[in-house]
Amino acid sequence: MSVLPKEINYKSAMSLPDGTSSNSIVSSPINGATFQASSIVQFDLVQRGYLVPESMYIRYKLTTTGGTAGAATNFIRGTPVYSFFARSEVIVGSQVVESIQNYNQLCNMLVNCKMNYAQKVGLANSFGYTSSAGATTFAFDFSTNAANGGNLSTSTAAAPQSIFLAAPLGNLLSNADHLVPLKFMPSCRIQLTTETLANAIQSPAGANAIAGYSISNFELCYDIIEFSPMVDQAISSMGAGSITIRSQSYLSSGTTIPAASVGTLEFLYNQRLASIKSLFVHLSGTVATVALNTLFDSQDVCGALGGDYQFFVSGMPYPPRPISTVLNKAGASMELSAAFGPAHDLLTSNFSITPAEFAASNNVATTQNQMGKFYIGTNVEKLSTNGALLTGISSQGSPISLRISIGTATTNNQVAQLICLYDALLTIDIPSRTLVVMQ
What we know:
six-stranded antiparallel beta sheet; single chain; 2 domains; mainly beta; five-stranded antiparallel beta sheet; Adenovirus Type 2 Hexon, domain 4; 439 residues; globular
């Protein structure tokens, strides 16, 4: 008999194994209850069950001190819920298996490139977005009140402002393709380093400035699934006790583009990875009078006369023809879209980038409402598929280079932050309870 079409295949799905249960875990930091700027926050995961990757999120209370009521220039830069975390690390046993620098900058870029404005407004309550009119005002629209940053205009020395924030926590474990068997792994720790006050919050000089911030009621939440001993035994017998899980992560490093730069420049990044899926460059501002959001702004460094951008890995150019802001700047947006999704499904992009934000330039001032969101990205994956483990290109044989042709001499310093999206393989040896990460 021929196979029935799926539309009329009424065969019942198999039930879960007996003894399967789900538990929601809420972890508190093991090294304190309240954290200020430049502190380390540590969470230990339980050593039982199987982690549901997409369930991991953080929630906390943010309290700001100082400032003057009505000072609308006091606001949280970037995506508020992530702005206070400069680094994210995953430690398994005594080994740091993932370390992401400028984690807040990366998350701000991902939010703006993977969520549209409707989605951002829908999550404004947990992400901390407000309009520039006030800390409790949510007058969002598609022009000057688009969701960017969080206002702190009501915070004063006498009455500190407190807000509650929550968001998914992306890392090597939460990006895994399958359930992560915590019970067969060494102890796992999530470590976050808080950001400096100056980088996280924009404040004017003088009496109006925010004096500090603290994070309390901090919790890491995630779900685990527990199966019967027979299921655990069956998993332990797979591959002679060795299992491999595919995940993905980001690696970030930066170099400074000095002021008065012009012509063709090439920057080297020593990021050695086995399977790179996409390459991005975030062109951060360094002068707050022009890049009000500093490291969260990304501004076109090429200037009024334009220029182009191109990546090189092992001597091969990506994309084959440079991304030009002279010939067709809109093409840069399509390349960025392809870097975040299947190259043949560009219409699924969920950007929250207005034309004015994408047009942000080296010497044009940004605002809280209209950030600099000129991101450059390109897809370098060989084939977008779940049928293979390593689908990207390798940079293990040589460093990655970024070539920029600048038409107009730059006015201000900028930081070219190269961000690599790469495949990572987690190989777990169950008898010895060890983990090896290939990246």
